[in-house]
Amino acid sequence: MQTKKQSLIESVSNTLIGFGISFLSTFIIFPLVGVDSSSGKNLVITIFFTVVSVVRGYVLRRFFNKKFK
Fold first, then answer.
1. CA distance 56 to 43
2. Measured torsion, CA atoms of residues 8, 14, 18, 19, in degrees rounded to the nearest 10
3. What is the C-alpha to C-alpha distance for residues 42 and 69, in angstroms, rounded to an integer?
4. CA 7, CA 4: separation in Å to the nearest integer?
């Protein structure tokens, strides 16, 4: 079973790997759907969703660790 700290480290590590992919994908996806954006806006959007992802991953991990002790 993971400690809370290990759960957080795993969630952050997993999300940071996806951060670069997500940021780069905004430059492809936004123009395809007609969203006019800049590098700065793309970065802010990516950071927001990264924080949401870290929290989501941590909460789910803790839930399942507690539920299936």
1. 20
2. 30
3. 40
4. 5
Give the residue among 66, 42, 53, 68 at the shortest CA–CA distance from 17.
Answer: 53
Residue 65 to residues 3, 21, 29, 51, Cα–Cα distance (Å) = 9, 28, 35, 21
| Domain of residue 51, residue span | 4-67
**CB 33, CB 53: distance < 8 Å:** no
**pTM (2 decimals)?**
0.72
* pLDDT reported for residue 39: 96
Residues 50, 58: Cα–Cα separation, whole Å: 12
Domains in the chain, number: 1
Average pLDDT per block of 10 residues along the chain, 69 residues long: 86 86 96 96 94 87 84
